[in-house]
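Course assignment 3, question 2. Fill in each field.
Student: A.L.
Task: Predict the tertiary structure for the chain below.
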Amino acid sequence: KEETGLPYASTNPGVMHACGHDCHISMLLTAVHMIHDIQDQLKGTVVFAFQPAEEIGRGAQSMIAEGALEGVDACFGMHVWSDVAAGKVAMRKGAMMASGDRFKVKVIGKSGHGAQPQRAVDAVVMGAAIVQNLQSLVSRELDPIDTAVVTVGKFTGGTRFNVIAGTAELEGTTRAFNPEVRNSFAERITRIAKSTAEAMRGTAEVEYEYLVPVTINDPKMIDVAAGAAKKIFGEDGVLEAPQMMGGEDFSYYQEKIPGAMVLLGVRNEALGAVWPQHHGCYRVDESVLVKGAALHVQTALDFLGVELH
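Answer field:
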């Protein structure tokens, strides 16, 4: 629920401006106007991608399938970020954001009376054991050098306090910076879930959904973006971004062509723009958005080698 009290607050319950995608559209629209005004000086073509469905990790794939990258040599993307001070831009070379996938585990046992456990196979107990055993995946199966996360965020099961559950469902996410680690999760989670359930006289079914790959910034494109950002934000306006376990479907573009994803700072304590993405009070310092639009334009110009006159 949007709790900002701002004029643009959503009037739809459970739907809000929680991550800044409205800012992204606004900046890109403004960048289109800017480029249009100087199009006679361009030495090439600038493509603006107004992409839907980043939130579910499917938008970039659909754009690519529909030809958005045809004839495109490189890509640049920007996300507003509440951890970075307004007037700063954070970026890094190489892996910056983790892969992000989703898994579901259906645990199947046998329901029965809560007072007669010997006649049932408790799916809730099996599910709890699977949750516990999945924690050993990162701590005991992966190289400690490879940062990774396995999180079970949802656990449902049972119908009544005195009935042993016959089924239970788990849903979770995985995150990794190493593509090999990412590609190993499906087998590992399936093995642990099925073996745990079998050891407790039940069964488990696993679905693993690949959502977004690792966001890997091309070093040369980051150099271009950093040079452009210094022109817009000043020499001290560029920061090195830390690696983050959040995922970004911009990574699908980067699998096809060199690309740079950067983070535009929108944090400003004086305005109350201090809340993290996805918080009910999330807001941004809107005054920096015009500079964000200018960064889109300057990056394109620098990549194309255009000096305005």
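Instructor remarks: The chain has seven helices and twelve strands. Residues 114 and 162 are 5 Å apart (CA to CA).
Grade: pending
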